[in-house]
From TrEMBL:
InterPro entries: Fe-S_cluster_assembly_SufBD, SUF_FeS_clus_asmbl_SufBD_core, SUF_FeS_clus_asmbl_SufBD_sf. It comes from Eubacterium ramulus. Coiled coil: none annotated. PANTHER family: FES CLUSTER ASSEMBLY PROTEIN SUF, UPF0051 PROTEIN ABCI8, CHLOROPLASTIC-RELATED. It comes from the Bacteria. This is ABC transporter permease. It holds the Pfam family SUFBD_core. Belongs to the iron-sulfur cluster assembly SufBD family. Residues 85-304 form the SUF system FeS cluster assembly SufBD core domain. GO terms for biological process: iron-sulfur cluster assembly.
Length: 306
């Protein structure tokens, strides 16, 4: 059974307000709270380390897997290893994410490694949301690591979201793409207070016709700090694009490091980076419609991160 705090966290990170359809594995305070498998999707606990293996049969379509994690125990620190085996020709949605509610004085931390093995012509949409809450002095810490291995003709879309309450996070994502594979990453991030967020992406385009599009949109408020380090490596005739678009406010700091490495004559790679404050005329325009300056800023930020 899950308490009300844990249920609220589930709603925030996985949009779950009850038992989800399809396969799922819900983890609460270091223990499995609920699990369900289907005829096409199996979930197996690892025996050597903490974590699970998710097996999706070839040809599986229109099915989903939910694997959220919630922590409501101050002082808890855990590390999990989850592997996803996505069969050839499948088309699935995977919803992950972690929510921490820390009302104590000790830090609460969840670290995890997710590895994706995507077979030929498979399609995956992966949603990972991070959320922090609680009025304790202890920090809410999340350090996700992601490895993606994509076979020929496969496709993966990653939606990485963190817009509230996480004090410290280091996100490290690496991907290897074979011929014709395509990776799309959309990161949305907001930091406030004294929070720190580091995002690192390294994508190797190894096969002919492979492509990647990695875009981050972020807002840094108060005294927070952000670092976006994105590297695309073209090892074959391929196309790659990485972009950082950020709004800076108050006394925050942002470091953007877009990197391109071309190791093939026909590697077409592009990077873009833009950091700036909210334009004054935007605020004035909204204030003429009856909003306060604070409300105008909030509307602009919400629209930017949508």
């Amino acid at each position: 059974m899950m308490d009300e705090i844990q249920k609220r966290l589930l709603a925030e990170v996985a949009d779950l307000h009850g038992v989800p359809e399809g396969a799922y594995n819900i983890r609460a305070n270091g223990q499995m709270a609920a699990r369900n498998t289907t005829a096409n999707i199996d979930i197996v606990s690892k025996t050597d380390v903490s974590g699970i293996d998710i097996y999706i049969k070839p040809g599986t379509v229109n099915e989903s897997v939910h694997i959220p994690v919630v922590l409501s125990q101050s002082g808890m620190k855990e590390m999990v290893y989850n592997d996803f085996h996505i069969g050839e020709g499948s088309d699935v949605v995977i919803v992950a994410g972690c929510g921490i509610d820390n009302c104590g004085d000790q830090d609460a931390e969840h670290d995890g490694i997710h590895r994706f093995f995507i077979e030929k012509n498979a399609k995956v949409k992966y949603v990972e949301k991070h959320y922090g809450a609680g009025d304790g002095k202890g920090k809410r810490i999340l350090n996700p690591g992601t490895e993606v291995y994509m076979e020929e003709g496969s496709y993966m879309e990653m939606e990485m979201v963190q817009i509230k309450g996480v004090d410290s996070t280091v996100r490290d994502t690496k991907a290897e793409l074979a011929a014709g594979a395509k990776l799309v990453v959309r990161e949305r991030l907001m930091t406030h207070g004294d929070q720190n967020a580091v995002s690192g992406y390294s994508v190797s385009l190894n096969g002919e016709g492979s492509s990647a599009d990695v875009i981050s949109r972020s807002v840094a408020k108060d005294n927070s700090y952000q670092k976006f380090d994105s590297r695309i490596i073209g090892n074959a005739p391929c196309s790659g694009h990485t972009e950082c678009d950020a709004i800076i406010m108050d006394k925050a700091r942002i470091l953007a490091i877009p990197q391109l490495e071309a190791n093939d004559l026909d590697a077409a790679l592009i990077h873009e980076a833009a950091i700036g404050k909210i334009a004054g005329e935007q605020i004035i325009k909204l204030m003429t419609l009856g909003l306060t300056e604070e409300e105008a800023e909030e509307q602009i930020v919400n629209g930017f991160l949508r």
